[in-house]
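User: I'm new to structure prediction. If I give you an amino acid sequence, what do you actually give back? Let's try with this one:
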Amino acid sequence: MADQANHSVSTESSLLPTYARAPVAFERGEGAWLIATDGARYLDFGAGIAVCSLGHSHPHMINALTEQAQKLWHVSNLFQIPQAERLAKRLVESTFADFVFFTNSGAEALEGAIKTARKYQAASGRPEKFRLVTFEGAFHGRTLATIAAGGNPKYIEGFGPKVEGFDQAPWGDLEAVRSLIGPATAGILVEPIQGEGGVRVPPPGFLRALRNLCDEHALMLVFDEVQSGVGRTGKFFAYEIYGVTPDIMAIAKGIGGGFPLGAFLTTREAGKGMVVGSHGTTFGGNPLATACGNAVLDVVLSEGFIGEVSRKGLLLRQRLARLQDAHPKVIAEIRGEGLFIGLRLHTSNSEFTVLARDHHMLVIPALDNVVRLLPALTVTDQEIDEAVIRLDCACVEAERRLETAENASS
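Assistant: Good question. You get back a string of structure tokens that encode the predicted 3D arrangement of the chain. For your 410 residues, that looks like this:
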């Protein structure tokens, strides 16, 4: 009983401490805004790391979720699921793909994409081909295979032998990619725009050159559009910007609008090895998740919506360019496409994230000393202006700290 009593009065979190959580909790959201438990309003330019594509509490999402929740949540993929069939058909009609497999997350979508690329080679009589060329700075998830694909030692260390089958090239280095292609290579896995790596866009012609290499060597070109997809870049998917079509593509985040949902898409040829029994999921594509996915597409694929994302992305970049001119000691570079924007900083990105939060503005840190701006695709022009005002306040404070540090060292 004593042990039980001690446990009940403990103030220590029961969550496994794998996150350094910010000292704020939110109880509700409205569009591009989050309201904390103390009533404070925060302008959310993180959107759950590009997840809340339609913002918080979007009425169409609420209606779709509640309507489906009152009917049926889950049945398993042993039966027909009309909501999943409809969502898959819409994705096929709007992309390069012929087939869709639904998952719960981006990492699962990448696992399925990796398996599909390998299985294609086996089904083509080349079972020795299983390796994928990947890129430094990539992030593909936290499973054993996807951390190996990403290659970041920080995520791999301590989890036993690295999963075999991934060869990393420097980002944008075509000759390095060419040198890594060998008898066991099955494909190339790449984010059209690196997200966690720092919103790094590819060099001109790079993705086209990867497509040509895949065609030359009978390899699968696999795109990871978990973060860049579903309208985020001002196109439905980022591959459209570059005019390069993959064979397989993993998506997640924005497709569920906040409800856990992912998928991998494949051409008929690329998916020919994925037959009955070759892959599966318990929860993926259930009625509740795919009802939410359909609600997202109702909005994102409506006439003019993605064009508006592109326009608002340009407006944001214009405002940020002025901010950079005003604070050259803080902002080094503006990157990205649409509403998928990165600010590379001269000051610490983790410190800047806190400064922005102090002004009730939420941004997301990334590698390469970048903070990401990933607002809801429904963000208004006025909210963009307000975001830049709050970022300006954070820049002023960052400059003050820089000046104080310079004076102290002189």
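You can read the tokens as a compact description of the fold. Here is one thing that stands out. The CA atoms of residues 114 and 222 lie 8 Å apart.
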